[in-house]
Amino acid sequence: MTIESTGPGEISLARALARTALAINPGRFDADVIAKAKICLLDFLSCAFEARNHPWSRQAIGIAREVGDGATIIGTRTLASPGDAAFANATMGHGLVREDMHAASICHHGVVIWPTLLALSQRAPLSGATFLAAAIIGYETGAQIGRALFTADLARLYRPTGLVAPLGAAMAGSYALGLSEGAATSAVAIAANTSSGLNEWPRAGGSEMYFHPGFAARNAIAAIELAEAGALASETILEGEAGLFAAFHRQPAPANIQLFANPQPEIMAVYNKPAPACNFAQTAAQTALRVARQLRTSEDIATVAIRVPEAAARYPGCDSKGPFHNALQTKMSIPFSVAAVLARGALEEENYAQIDDPKILRLIELTDLQSASDLSAAFPANQGAEVLVGLRDGKTIHQRLDNVIAATPEEIRARFRQAASDVIGDKRARHLEELVDDCPSLPDSRVIAARCRLEPTEQRLRPAS
Predict the structure, then answer these.
(1) pLDDT of residue 457
(2) H or E stretch at 433
(3) Cβ distance 19 to 181 under 8 Å?
C-alpha cells in the first residue's frame, strides 16, 4: 500500500506516511525481513551490553530518574521513565560506534528505534509480531525521509541520525501503540521539531555524538506521549515553507515519499558493521586488511593512497590526519583506520586503543585520501574503496572492494552471546537470544526488555554505574 501527496490541498506528507504505516498488517513481511529485524535487534543489544561501562554510558545511566514500574536500562537493575530508559539505552547502543547503518540516508536508525520500542513495550502490552513490524516501519520511514533529505553538504553540518531517526522512531511507536491517524501524524510532526545534532564533535573531540541517538529516542517518546495526550502539530511539517525540507535541505520536499514501494523494505538495505568505527571507514579498513596480508612489515610502506566515495571523503572527521585527542576521533578518521590496519594487520577494537602509536602515526603522514568519481557514482547502492600502497622497493600493492562486507548473522550472534554473557550470565543470555528468535510468536514483548535487566545480586557483582 502506498499513498502519494503531490501538492496543496491534498493530503500532507506526514499524514500520508502515517496512513500507510498504520494500515500495515504485521503478517505482511517475509521471513527474511523478519529475520533481518531480529538480527538488528540482537546487534543493538550486543552493542549496549558491551558499551555499558564506557564513560558516556555511565553518564547517561546516571542521569536517569528511577521509577518503580518503569522501563529497563540494559545491563543494570534500574527501572526508569520510558524517556530516560530510551536515552540511556540508545547512548549505550551507540557507545562502540558499531551500530547498524543505512548508507543511503547516512543514518543509524536502529539505535533510536529499538530503545524507543523496548521502553514502550514495558508501558503497554505489545505482541512480538507488532513489536517487529513497528521496527520495520520505523526503519522504512526514517530511511525514506533521509534518502530524500540528505546531501553531502547537509551531512557535514547536521548529524543525519539526529535529524531523521526521531521521525522513524515516532512512527514506529505510534504503530506499536495503535495511535489514530491524526495522533500518529502529530507524533511525527512533533518529532520533526526535535530534529537536532551538530557535527562539530569530530573536529573538537567532544563526546556529544554518543548522546545524539539518546536525544532522538527520548524525543520520539515525548512526541508520542504528547500526541496521545491530544497535542496537535503541523501536518505540513515536512513540505511546508518552514518545514523540515525547507529548513535543512533548502529545497522543496519531494512531491511524495512512499513507504514499502520498493521490492524490498529499507531494513534490508541496512548493514551491520564488522568493525567499531565510522561507516565511511569500514570499506577502506577492510580493503587495507587485504593489503596487510600481502605485506612483510609495515616498515616497508612508503606511500598510501586511499580512494573512497565523495560522501566518505567529505563527512566530518573522515579526512582527519590528527592530532587525535580521543578514540572517537580515530574511529571517524579513514586515514587512521587504514593506517592502524596496515600497522597491526588486524581490524578490531584494539586498533583504536593506542591513539599515539608511532607506527600508526607514521603511516597516517604517508596517506593521501582521494574522492573517486567511479566510487561516488556507485554510492549509496555500493560503498566501495581502493587502497594503493607503495613500497620502498618501488612495488605497489593494490586492493579494491566494490562494497562494504557486512558482519554476518553468525558473527553478530557470536558477539551478542559474548557481550550478553559477560553482563547477565550464559543462561540468561541464551534465554534472551531465544526470546528474540521467538519474538514473532510472543504474546507480550516486554519479556525481552525485562530479560536485559540485572538481578539485585548481579548488580553488586557487576557495577554498571
Answers:
(1) 61
(2) helix 426-437
(3) yes
Domain ranges of the chain: 13-269, 279-401
- In contact, 208 and 153? CB cutoff 8 Å: no
The answer to whether the CB of 435 falls within 8 A of the CB of 47 is no
pLDDT tens string 34-78: 999 999 999 999 999 999 999 999 999 999 999 989 999 999 999
Residue 380 has pLDDT above 80, yes or no: yes
pLDDT band at 460 (very low <50, low <70, confident <90, very high): very low
Is it true that 13-269 and 279-401 share their CATH fold? no
Which amino acid would we find at residue 29? F
CA dihedral 74, 269, 125, 49 (to 10 degrees): -10
For 13-269, CATH gives 1.10.4100.10
Amino acid at the residue 267:
I
Q: What is the DSSP string of 404-424?
A: --PPPHHHHHHHHHHHHHHHH
Stretch 344-361: mean pLDDT: 92
Which numeric CATH code is attached to 279-401? 3.30.1330.120
Residue owning grid cell 547477565: 424
